[in-house]
Amino acid sequence: MRIVEATRFGGPEVLRVREVDDLVAGPGQVVVGVAAADVLSVEAQLRTGWGAEWSGTEPPFVPGTGVAGRVLSVGEGVDPSLVGRRVAAMVTRGYAEQALAEADALVPVPDALGFPQAAALLQVGPAALSLVEAAELKPGARVLVTGAGGGLGLVLVELAAAAGAEVTASATGTAKRRRAERLGAAHTEPKGAYDVVFDGVGGQVGERAFELTAPGGRFFAYGVMTGAPAAVDPEAAAARGITLKGMEQVQFTPERFRTLAERAFHAGITPTIGLAVPLDRAAEAHAAIEARALVGKAVLLVTSRAVRYREYGEPEVLTVDEVPIPSPGPGQVRVAVKAAAVNAIDWRFRRGFMVVSLDEPARTGLEIAGTVDALGEGVEGWRLGQPVFGRVATGGLADHALADAAELLAKPDRLSFEEAAALPVAAETAARTLAELGVEPGQRLLIHAVAGGVGLVAAQLARSRGIEVVGTAGEGHHGFLRELGVTPVAYDEGWAERVGPVDAVLDASGRGVLADSVRLTGDPAKVITIADPSAGEHGVRFSTGGSSGLAAVREVVDGGAVRMPIARTFPLEEAAEAHRLSEHGHLLGKIVVITEAPLPQ
């Protein structure tokens, strides 16, 4: 298994990934297969050598105290039925693919809560619940939260606002303040006196916050973000009738912690994840925390989600599985996927019309858009975090996907991730088939299923070249098609007579139109299909992927004139519905699956 180790005290660069033996559970223990690990600011401080005198930390060491994942194995005296359960746990070496945890300290993770969210809530959730309960908030109470842009601060804002308090969220940076406002903060500039102050910063910030505490109020000093808690004089607090609470309010017995964590997981709390990166990018997470620009939490990802199928069939054969995050090989780029498009070929693979091996679970999705997440050996010209889009061999419906570096393009700012994901297959196919047909300016081109992805790109490319385009499509799409300069024809009885003679036909529908299309052109060589397997019976060419795909996509994108409507979007969990709609719907544009919607927020 892999671990992240602090090789010495120092900056984020001292964190290194290395391989070690798998763990074995001892008596009363379980081995958790880590899916996500929490990252705390105190862990970044300990990495520098701060607190070594009381923490006992000596390099090399594995940071991390909170993880979420599934139980892999159990030790002596532990119920074997725990294997496979979704759990979270406090551990001592959390930045790893596996972690040891005490069986009686496991916190069940509900199915509705993702592992990254569980890891992000595991420690801040109990702390926030404890603080808010101790504050005894009443509707209308004035509450100040310092460090309100951090993971705990934002949960406090949300809980206090839900309790009816008037919350002021003190945070540095516009993004942090806006997030606090979305979670219920009424103000972001401290002013006046407060009944309750939650100080998550300490130092001089905490001392100034104490001065804003109203007589008879409550002041909670639990944060050491600055390296030390607020230096508050107990006598001064007593003279003003202020109740002081310190770190003891966020320190729990194992039993109390588990109770609070379970409550947090079911309380509908919104964990704010500002950065979610794979385990091998732990240094980046620490750097982001130290830069104080992170909104909410940072988590490390050990597994990600991928849509797969183990048998051919209806959309129900698709499952969303937890899989190891792949490592890029030579010439490859790992992409943190933001959006992935669904194409007809995807459900044809799934149905077995085009045989793929099912010795291992098969993946689905050929085109993606996202950000560069890792670079394989020999890859140049790309940088981490760079927005890209392009084709993958298969497996685009996932949080992370591997792509050949040569199959990616930089995403233009003018394209959203959804729009970019919808272009590669359609652009390559449209450009290729138009070239194969050899249609010239002034000629008349018929496109079947012109409102689909390929049809739309082909129509727009043809129009830009002076080619007249007529296309079959549902009547609901005719208005949009006319805006593009396409003459739409309803696909019903008599469509061929209404179309009239044409010079070439591109069939993207597969709806049995080849015989009439050949009749309209008078020459089967002037008809191409990308969807009808009966092409040979009519002497028509069946066109499939070419070798110059990336150049064609670049030409389409650089031209800037192609519009690609997004017909529907689905979250990754509803990939089966996306497939079903692609197979049976007649939509304008492309269906896109949003793969990383919850991360980051």
Question: What this model shows, in words?
Answer:
With 601 residues, the chain is an alpha/beta fold. It is 28% helix and 27% strand. The protein is built from 18 helices and 30 strands. The strands form six sheets. Strands 3, 4, 5, 6, 7, 13 and 14 form a seven-stranded mixed beta sheet that branches. Strand 8, helix 4 (151-162) and strand 9 form a beta-alpha-beta unit. Helix 12 packs across helix 17 (549-559). The longest helix is centred in the N-terminal third of the chain and has 21 residues, at 115-135.
Overall pLDDT metric? 94
Fraction in helix:
25-40%
| Content of β-strand | 25-35%
Largest sheet: 7 strands, mixed
Number of helices in the DSSP assignment: 18
Q: Report how far the terminal alpha carbons are from each other.
A: 30 Å
C-alpha Rg (nearest Å): 29 Å
Number of strands: 30
Which structural class best describes the helix and strand composition? alpha/beta
- Which shape, going by the Cα principal axes? elongated
The parts where pLDDT drops under 50 for at least 5 residues are none
